[in-house]
C-alpha cells in the first residue's frame, strides 16, 4: 500500500494548487468570478483536502486507529470525491469557451477546473479501494465471529 501514500501526497499538492489559484482569483476582484460561490466552494475544497480530509486519511490509521473507524474512512473518501466532482463540473459550466478565456483570472480558473478533475479521479480511485477494504473488513469480521461462536458451542 506504499502507492497510497504517493497518491495522498499528490492529492495534497493538487489541493494546494487549487487553494492558491482560487485565492488568486478571489484576490483579483476584477471579474464576476471573484464573487462566485463556485470559486468559494473550490477554495473550501482546497482547504478541506489539504488540511482536513487527506491528513486525516493518512494519519488516523497510523497514529490514532480508534479514530480510523472502518465506516468513517470510506465516508470521508466518498464525500470528498463527490465534492470534487461537483466543484470541477460547476466551474467548467461557468467558464467561457477556451478561445474566449484570454485573461489571467480566467486561465487560473481553467487550471482550477483541470486540477479539480484530477483530484476527482484520484479520490475516485482511493474511494474504490476504501470501499473494497471495508467489504473485506466486514467479511473477515463476520467469519471471525462465526468461527469464534462455533468454537464455543462445544465447550
TrEMBL record:
Limits of the MARVEL domain: 4-129
Compartment(s): Membrane
Principal localisation: membrane
UniProt keyword annotation of Transmembrane helix present: yes
Protein name: MARVEL domain-containing protein
GO annotation, cellular component aspect: membrane
Membrane topology label: Multi-pass membrane protein
Membrane-crossing segments per the record: 12-35, 41-64, 71-91, 111-131
Tree of life domain: Eukaryota
Keywords attached to this entry: Membrane, Transmembrane, Transmembrane helix
Source species: Penicillium angulare
